[in-house]
Amino acid sequence: MALKETLKQKIEEHRPRTTKLTKEFGKVIIDQVTIEQCIGGARDIRSLVTDISYLDPQEGIRFRGKTIPETFAALPKAAGSAYPTVESFWYFLLTGDVPTDAQVAEVAAEWKTRQAVPEYVFTAIRALPRDSHPMVMLSVGIMALQKESKFAAFYNSGKFNKMVAWESVYEDASDIVARIPIIAAFIYNLKYKGDKQIAIDPTLDMGANFAHMIGQSDQYKDVARMYFILHSDHESGNVSAHTTHLVHSALSDPYYAYAAGLNGLAGPLHGLANQEVLGWIMEFQKKLNGAEPTKENVTKALWDTLNAGQVVPGYGHAVLRKTDPRYTAQREFCLKTPGLKDDPLFKLVAMIFETAPGVLTEHGKTKNPWPNVDAQSGVIQWYYGVKEWDFYTVLFGVGRALGCMANITWDRGLGYAIERPKSVTTAMLEKWAADG
Ligand code: NMX
Ligand code: MLT
């Protein structure tokens, strides 16, 4: 059965569960809210629902119930590779089923029909100053594409129907995931390669084609596949996924919603941290002035950062309380890749891994002194020659599209309401505080 048909069946089977929970058990209490949470970024309040992924503070992410190693092991692999295709992962995220080779081939063929990006999108990006941040370019590219929205067209058709609205979200979502790597590669070549663009190779899967379009080696194909899958989803409360969900809850179409999500991803406490990590390392190396990095000078650099009131990029997390398994997956990729495991930058990042948790624990502020996904990702890009670190968050944004688009397809399928939490005033908090 084709992906959309399978999804239709899954959504229809799932709907009664959501309806029953709302109608029969709607008043069951699953959490309470403290003043600290109200002021402190709604941390840990259980108020979002998704079945696409779940983040356990100790274990890390599970995609559709599978850990990262289980996901990589279960999915059909790209030809000649130990890594799954992004296409197979997309099928899995949307349906929860491990696809057959034939189902993966169908998704790949479908993406080929969706890949072509209209020229006006490139014109809009080219019109920006060349020193605009690549995340601005990506966000503009997605916004420019909005006029293609099938969901917006359906909404404006006069035939809008909540029961089938998810189908046009699925269409937009599939267009976005198929096109975003093409836009990202265009931005890369525009900004860093003198606008020497490389055409799509229609014989390649998404990750391999991205590698080809940014002029990369064969080895980078697996980097792209791994990278996009690892960055795809991190349950629903993170800034990019939550923003996408929130904006789409107003029935803004997937283009508006994901451009908003990308704008959140561009924050230094979120996706921009991967660029900040490389910036931090380069600054550190500059100060070393040719000397060898040691545990002592790394410790000093970490304290200098903390004493300057800055955060150590790539460390800490709002939910995780252990090393991020996405960090571990990338570290293992480095360790098993000849050349990369002996690379000086990898060695330095490994030394930061040995040092930073102790320093952060002694500093005593962060609830999680362990590395997150961003602490390791730049090293791999750097090694393969993608040294333009302000591009790294764009790579995150290509991967995150998979999770955000799968989530809002299900949001519409299950008819989730417009998101509208209630705010209170400081005086109200003070009164509740005084009342105990
Ligand atoms: N370095 C220094 N201080 C930190 C760090 C860090 N890496 N992480 C947290 N803190 C501080 C934080 O600023 C806060 O200080 P204050 O009380 O003065 O406001 C205190 O520790 C408590 O924060 P937490 O409750 O541990 O963390 P929170 O949930 O608020 O924030 C992050 C989570 C991820 C925003 C935070 O750990 C951070 O800023 N990390 C560095 C940036 C980063 O790597 N972000 C990427 C996250 C993953 N991603 O890709 O999105
Ligand atoms: C993410 O992947 O979105 C980050 O780890 C941040 C988060 O989960 O809050």
UniProtKB/TrEMBL annotation:
Pathway: Carbohydrate metabolism; tricarboxylic acid cycle; isocitrate from oxaloacetate: step 1/2. GO terms for biological process: carbohydrate metabolic process; tricarboxylic acid cycle. Gene3D superfamilies: Citrate Synthase, domain 1, Cytochrome P450-Terp, domain 2. It comes from the Bacteria. Its EC number is 2.3.3.16. The keyword Transferase applies. Keywords: Acyltransferase, Transferase. It holds the Pfam family Citrate_synt. One of its GO terms (molecular function) is citrate synthase activity. SUPFAM superfamilies: Citrate synthase (SSF48256). Belongs to the citrate synthase family. PANTHER family: CITRATE SYNTHASE, CITRATE SYNTHASE, PEROXISOMAL. This is citrate synthase (unknown stereospecificity).
